[in-house]
Design a protein that fits this description.
Elements lengths: L1 H10 L10 H13 L14 H16 L3 H17 L3 H5 L6 H15 L7 H11 L6 H15 L2 E8 L5 H12 L9 E8 L7 E5 L2 E4 L2 H15 L1
Parallel strand pairs: 1-2
Antiparallel strand pairs: 1-3, 3-4
Helix pairs in contact: 1-6, 2-3, 3-8, 4-8, 6-7
Length: 232
């Protein structure tokens, strides 16, 4: 796994990362990406946090070079790598990574993007994260870039959380039912995002826009426990 290779490299060095001015590095990248930006290259929604700032800067850079779709596909691939390798995030946050380690990490990550990275937009972005000691925000950037692309495409995100993976047929039924509801505006497309969380024990948690419908077993148990506590 990728995290194993990173760990092996990190273990060979005990040199800590040099401290940097985080906000300055973000502004530097954002400024470089934003030079000559227009309405068509401006992120469609405002995001917050370090990962949100980097995701917005990457969006602007990709829009300027007409590589939004390829950048999105490359980041979706990287997001999949994080899901398959739970230890990867911890490895990217390791304080003992040297400059050489980080260059190797970028090289390994690029192998996963394959030919999806048109114009080397993601490659340049990964190098920027490595130079600024911000590889640890990559997973969050992948997620928030997806939010920007959904807004750009006019998609409404439907998050369905279950205790175990749902059958494709069930997800399709949910998509069909909700796409006809008032929560999906005219001309909007519904994007279904399935998530698995064993802690809910059963049932579903459906989120769309600012509305959440909690039909989970854990929620019902919590309500029952509260009722018993208030009654006894």
């Amino acid at each position: 796994m990728l995290s194993g290779r990173i760990l092996a490299q990190a273990a060979r060095s005990s040199v800590p990362r040099a401290p940097i001015a985080a906000q300055a590095s973000i502004r530097s990248y954002a400024a470089a990406a934003g030079q000559g930006s227009t309405t068509s290259t401006k992120p469609p929604v405002a995001l917050f946090g370090i990962d949100g700032t980097y995701a917005s800067a990457l969006y602007t850079a990709a829009a300027k070079t007409s590589t939004l779709d390829s950048t999105s596909k490359a980041l979706e691939t990287l997001s999949g790598v994080f899901k398959k390798d739970p230890k990867l995030q911890g490895m990217l946050s390791a304080p003992m990574l040297t400059v050489s380690d980080k260059k190797q990490i970028v090289t390994e990550l690029q192998k996963h993007t394959g030919g999806a990275d048109k114009g080397d937009t993601v490659k340049n972005f990964l190098n920027t994260l490595a130079e600024n000691n911000r590889l640890s925000v990559l997973e969050g950037v992948c997620e928030k870039f997806g939010v920007l692309m959904s807004a750009f495409r006019g998609e409404v995100e439907l998050t369905v959380t279950s205790a175990a993976p749902l059958d494709a047929k069930v997800l399709k039924q949910l998509e069909t039912a909700i796409s006809k509801s008032q929560y999906v505006g005219q001309g909007k497309k519904l994007k279904v995002v399935p998530k698995v969380n064993p802690d809910i024990r059963g049932g579903l948690i459906v989120e769309i826009g600012d509305r959440t419908i909690d039909l989970s077993v854990s929620s019902k148990m919590a309500k029952m426990n509260k009722l018993l506590t208030d009654t006894l």
